[in-house]
Design brief:
Layout lengths: L1 H36 L1 E4 L2 E5 L5 E5 L2 E5 L20 E6 L10 H12 L3 E6 L18 E6 L4 E5 L2 E6 L1 H15 L10
Parallel strand pairs: 5-6, 5-7, 7-9
Antiparallel strand pairs: 1-2, 2-3, 3-4, 8-9
Helix pairs in contact: 2-3
Length: 190
């Protein structure tokens, strides 16, 4: 009797192991397939989704976060620009914009800093400008953030003007950061 019980117990144990092994195999396989879906290759750079639905890629062991994939930004046409100095200004109108609390400015600032370019906040005019910020204009290499209803990006002298609401400016900054990192390139004029 005891021998029959131990054989039955052994059979149940083997069945349990087999069932859990099959479940584990399919669970592991599905998890790997799901992970591979969240990785997109673009020009040799791997973009992986974050838990927040953003995209992250790495260059020189530094992670950079984007709200959109490069393929989602193809409708944004950046004018040709280049940074020729190790310092650029981040211009804004202090009457209607606060660079310290804007997500888009933070993303651009982070990228510039990690590329060895010093970003310096400056005001476009004196009204409401904090005392610690200089007053600069587009005769200096700069990124000029303009809070407006219409979203666009254009050159004004030495400024790259980033105009729009917070969402529009964020997409433009993603495109600028992709260019600064060498993930996308300037289009040649026809």
């Amino acid at each position: 009797m005891a021998n029959k019980k131990s054989k039955l117990l052994l059979v149940v144990f083997i069945i349990f192991i087999m069932i859990t092994s099959v479940i584990g195999y399919f669970s592991y396989n599905n998890q790997n397939q799901a992970n591979n879906i969240n990785i997109i290759d673009y020009n040799g750079f791997k973009f992986q989704t974050t838990q927040e639905g953003r995209w992250i890629t790495s260059k020189n062991n530094i992670n950079f976060i984007f709200d959109k994939l490069p393929s989602e930004l193809e409708n944004i046409n950046l004018p040709n620009f280049q940074i020729t100095q190790d310092k650029v200004y981040v211009l804004y109108n202090a009457s209607n914009f606060n660079p310290g609390s804007d997500y888009s400015v933070g993303k651009l600032y982070y990228t510039l800093q990690n590329l060895g370019i010093r970003a310096v906040f400056a005001c476009i005019n004196e009204e409401n400008c904090p005392a610690q910020y200089p007053i600069k204009d587009c005769s200096n290499e700069a990124f000029y953030f303009k809070l407006e209803n219409t979203t666009k990006v254009y050159k004004d002298n030495k400024c790259l003007v980033i105009q729009g609401n917070n969402i529009g400016m964020s997409s433009i900054v993603d495109k600028i950061n992709l260019r600064l990192l060498g993930i996308i390139w300037m289009r040649k004029k026809d």
